[in-house]
Design goal:
Blueprint lengths: L2 H9 L10 E2 L5 E2 L11 E6 L4 E6 L4 H7 L18 E5 L2 E3 L7 H5 L3 E2 L3 E3 L3 E5 L26 E7 L11 H9 L8 H13 L3 E8 L4 E8 L7 E7 L3 E8 L5 E8 L9 H11 L1 H27 L8 E8 L1 H8 L4 H4 L13 E2 H4 L8 E4 L9 H10 L7 E7 L3 E6 L4 E6 L2 H4 L14 E7 L5 E5 L7 E2 L1 H13 L17 E4 L2 E7 L12 E4 H24 L7 E7 L8 H6 L11 E5 L1 H11 L1 H13 E3 L6 H9 L25
Parallel strand pairs: 3-9, 13-16, 16-18, 19-28, 21-30, 22-24, 28-29
Antiparallel strand pairs: 1-2, 3-4, 5-7, 5-9, 6-8, 10-11, 11-12, 13-14, 14-15, 17-18, 19-20, 20-21, 22-23, 25-26, 26-27
Helix pairs in contact: 6-7, 11-16, 11-17, 14-18, 16-17
C-alpha cells in the first residue's frame, strides 16, 4: 500500500490492510482499484454528462467506476444485477453480461447494466436519466416542541484566574477546577494538551465547556475569553435513504440551520438487508465512511449557512454536543459495528444502548471531545429512530390507546400509551421508496408524486420539480393503485384487466398499464412509463405487510381498533400520504380521519429533544423499558393477517367500511 493510504487509514482508525474502498472525509477516495499495481492494467472511464472521468483497474464495473467518481447511482440492489436501475450506454471496448432487465429495444440501442459491464479499454459512458440519483424531496420538519426547561448536557462557564507565582504554583488544571468550583472532572487528553497554552494566551480569562451526560463530568474544551453567548449542538437523523442534520442554539432551543441529503450508502443497496450483505462481502468500513462523509458534508453546509445568517465565523469546534437517531443497522454502520448477527436469526444487534463515544471516535467534524449520544434501539429491526418517533409524538404520556406507524425504507409499528407499548417491524419500504417497482423511484426531482386517471384512461399528475416525469415515487404509487382500482383497471387482487384500450399492453408475465408515453417523459427515456402486474403485486405485498403488522399488534395485545384514540404517522414518506387513498387500498386502518396526526420527521425531533432536555433523555429510557418487541418473521398471526390483506382493500370488507362501493351497494370488485 502507498504511504498516503497508510497514513489516512491509521489516522482514522482503519486497518492499513483494509480490502475495501475507503472514502476520505474530504472527498478523496483511496482504494485498491486506484492504487497502481504492476499486475493490473488501468483505463479511463469518462462520464461526459457529469463532466467527470476516473482511472480504474481492469475488472472494475461501470457501477464501481461511478462510485469511485462520486456519481450517485440508483443501484437499489447493491450492484447484483437484480433491480435494473443502473442502465448505461458505453462507447468503446467493453464486456457486458446480458440481463433480462434490459429490453430487446434497449439492447439494440446499446444499453447495458453498469453493474454487469466492465471496460476493456478507455471508454465513454452515457447514463440513462433514471440511473442518476437526483435532488431529493427530504422532510426536515417535525412537530417536536422546544422543551422547558432547557437542560443540554453541555454548559459553558467563564472564569478569571489568578496567574500562578512562586508562592502559588498550583498546577494549571487544578487551578482551573478550583475556580470552576466543581468536583474533579475527567479531562480528555487532547483538551489537557491545549490547556497551558490557552490559559496564558487568554491572560487567565477563559471559558470552560463542561459536558455531563450523567455518566461522568468532563471539561471538554477551554477557550480564551468569554464565549458563553454561543452554545451549539447537533441533532442527526440517519435514515436508510436520507440523512438530516439540525444545528441548534442550546441556549434558546432554536434551530440555527438545517441541511439534508441522500445517504451516500444508497449506491451500495436500497434497503438494510442489501447493505448488510454488501458489508459482509466488502467490509463495514466502506459503509461507515460513506455515511460519515454524508454527515460531515451536511455539517459543513449547516455551519456555512449559520455563519452567513449570523455574520460571524463558525466552525465544527463550536459544536459541543451531538445526538443521533437512526435504525439499528444505520447506527451500527455509523459506528463501524458488525451487522451480520442482525441480519441472521435470531437478529441480535451488538448493543441496544450505545455507550457514549467522542466525536473524534465517531469521525465527526465537530469538537473532537464532544460526546455523541445515540438514541437506544429496542430490537434489531426497531431502532432508535422509532424510539425517537415515540418521544416526539408524546404517545408514551398518553392515557388513551395510540397507534404509531412509521413507513420508510422499513415499516415500524408501535401500539400503546403511558402504561405499556408493543412494537414490531415489517419489510415495507422498498416498493414505496422506489425499489421492486419498475417505474418506481424516490421522492426526488422528476418523480410523479400525485396522479389521477381520467375516464379515457389518460393520466393527470404532478411532478416534483415541475419537470418532465422520470418515474413515480411512493405517494404517487399509492394514488396510482387507488385510481386503477376505482377505474376498474385492476381487480381486488391488483391484477390488470384486459380492457380495450391502448393504455393496456402486454408485459413480462402479465399486462402493463401505460402511465405516460415515452414522448412526454424526460429526454433520453428509452420506454413508456409502465406499471406492470408484477409491480402491483410487490406494492400489494407492501401495503399488506403494513396493515398486517398493525392488526397483529392489536391481536397480540387483545385490543380493538375501535378503541384506538389516535393514529400517528411518522417519517418523510408518511408525511406525503393521502390518508383517504391509503385507507381505500387497505394500507392504513379505516378509522375517522380526525384520528390521524402527522408528526413529520419524528426521528430528528426525538434527537433534538434528547439534545436539549435531561427530562426527555430520561423519558427515552422509560420508553425503552415499557416497549415489548414482537418478531413478525416467525409469527403465525402475522402470516395470517398478511395473507388476509393481500386484496384491495382486504379479504374482510367489513374492516374497511369506507371502501369504494359499486352501484349495487356491494364492494367494488
Amino acid at each position: 500500500m502507498n504511504n498516503a493510504l497508510d497514513v489516512y487509514a491509521e489516522s482514522h482508525g482503519f486497518p492499513t490492510e483494509c480490502d475495501t474502498t475507503v472514502k476520505q472525509r474530504h472527498g478523496v477516495r483511496f482504494g485498491r482499484s486506484q492504487m497502481p499495481k504492476d499486475t493490473k492494467r488501468y483505463m479511463t472511464v469518462k462520464f461526459p454528462s457529469e463532466n467527470k472521468s476516473i482511472s480504474v483497474a481492469e475488472g472494475t464495473t461501470l457501477l464501481e467506476a461511478c462510485n469511485l467518481a462520486d456519481i450517485p447511482i440508483d443501484a437499489v440492489c447493491g450492484g447484483e444485477g437484480k433491480c435494473g436501475r443502473c442502465k448505461m450506454r458505453p462507447r468503446g471496448p467493453y464486456d457486458a453480461t446480458p440481463s433480462p432487465q434490459i429490453t430487446e429495444a434497449e439492447s439494440k440501442e446499446g444499453w447495458v447494466l453498469g453493474c454487469l459491464c466492465r471496460p476493456l479499454g478507455d471508454i465513454s459512458v452515457e447514463l440513462m436519466p433514471r440511473a442518476r440519483i437526483g435532488k431529493h424531496q427530504i422532510l426536515t420538519e417535525t412537530t417536536a416542541e422546544i422543551p422547558r426547561p432547557l437542560r443540554p448536557w453541555t454548559l459553558k462557564k467563564y472564569v478569571e484566574l489568578q496567574p500562578p507565582n512562586v508562592s502559588d504554583n498550583v498546577a494549571d488544571l487544578e487551578r482551573l477546577i478550583q475556580r470552576l468550583g466543581t468536583k474533579r472532572p475527567c479531562v480528555p487528553l487532547d483538551t489537557l494538551k491545549e490547556l497551558s497554552g490557552v490559559l496564558r494566551s487568554g491572560s487567565w480569562k477563559v471559558t470552560a465547556t463542561i459536558s455531563d451526560l450523567g455518566q461522568s463530568r468532563e471539561i471538554i474544551r477551554v477557550e480564551p475569553s468569554d464565549t458563553t453567548t454561543s452554545l451549539l449542538g447537533l441533532a442527526i437523523d440517519i435514515g436508510t435513504t436520507t440523512v438530516v442534520v439540525e444545528l441548534l442554539d442550546m441556549l434558546t432551543g432554536k434551530t440555527v440551520a438545517t441541511a439534508s441529503d441522500y445517504n451516500h450508502q444508497t449506491s451500495r443497496g436500497e434497503d438494510v438487508i442489501a447493505r448488510m450483505m454488501y458489508s459482509e462481502e466488502k467490509g463495514v468500513l466502506e459503509l461507515k465512511a460513506l455515511v460519515t462523509d454524508t454527515i460531515n458534508a451536511l455539517i459543513f453546509r449547516a455551519l456555512k449557512s449559520a455563519s452567513t445568517e449570523s455574520r460571524r465565523s463558525l466552525d465544527g469546534r463550536d459544536i459541543s454536543a451531538v445526538s443521533v437517531a437512526g435504525n439499528s443497522i444505520m447506527t451500527h454502520f455509523f459506528l463501524g459495528l458488525d451487522t451480520r448477527h442482525i441480519r441472521l436469526e435470531p437478529y441480535v444487534p451488538t448493543a441496544y444502548h450505545i455507550p457514549c463515544v467522542s466525536a473524534k471516535e465517531a469521525g465527526l467534524d465537530v469538537e473532537p471531545t464532544a460526546s455523541v449520544f445515540t438514541v437506544p434501539s429496542r430490537a434489531g429491526y426497531v431502532g432508535g429512530d422509532v424510539v425517537a418517533d415515540v418521544l416526539t409524538s408524546g404517545m408514551h404520556r398518553s392515557s388513551g390507546l395510540m397507534l404509531l406507524i412509521d413507513v420508510g425504507t422499513n415499516g415500524e409499528i408501535v401500539l400503546g400509551g403511558k402504561d405499556w407499548m408493543a412494537a414490531c417491524a415489517c419489510s415495507a419500504g422498498p416498493a414505496f421508496e422506489g425499489g421492486e417497482v419498475s417505474c418506481g423511484m424516490r421522492a426526488m426531482e422528476g418523480a410523479i408524486d400525485k396522479i389521477r386517471i381520467n375516464d379515457d384512461l389518460t393520466t393527470s399528475y404532478h411532478v416534483i420539480g415541475d419537470e418532465r416525469p422520470v418515474g413515480i415515487c411512493g405517494s404517487g404509487l399509492i394514488d396510482l393503485i387507488a385510481e386503477m382500482y376505482a377505474q376498474g383497471i385492476v381487480d381486488r387482487k391488483a391484477r390488470i384487466q384486459a380492457l380495450r384500450s391502448d393504455r393496456i399492453q402486454s408485459a413480462d408475465a402479465g399486462l402493463g398499464f401505460v402511465v405516460e408515453r415515452k414522448s412526454e417523459l424526460v429526454k433520453g427515456a428509452a420506454n413508456d412509463l409502465v406499471v406492470t402486474d408484477a409491480d402491483l403485486q410487490n406494492l400489494l405485498r407492501t401495503k399488506a405487510a403494513i396493515f398486517g403488522a398493525c392488526s397483529t399488534l392489536l391481536r397480540k395485545t387483545d385490543e380493538r381498533l375501535d378503541d384506538v384514540t389516535g393514529v400517528v404517522i411518522a417519517g418523510g414518506f408518511g408525511s406525503h400520504l393521502d390518508v383517504g387513498r391509503s385507507i381505500s387500498i387497505g394500507m392504513l386502518p379505516d378509522v375517522p380521519y380526525e384520528k390521524y396526526r402527522f408528526i413529520g420527521n419524528g426521528s430528528l425531533g426525538g434527537a433534538r429533544l434528547t439534545l436539549l432536555s435531561a427530562k426527555r433523555r430520561r423519558e427515552v429510557e422509560d420508553i425503552f423499558e415499557k416497549m415489548t418487541y414482537f418478531e413478525l418473521s416467525v409469527d403465525a398471526t402475522f402470516y395470517e393477517e398478511f395473507s388476509s390483506a393481500l386484496f384491495i382493500p382486504h379479504t374482510d370488507l367489513g374492516r374497511f367500511p369506507s371502501a369504494p362501493k359499486d352501484k349495487s351497494g356491494g364492494a367494488k370488485e
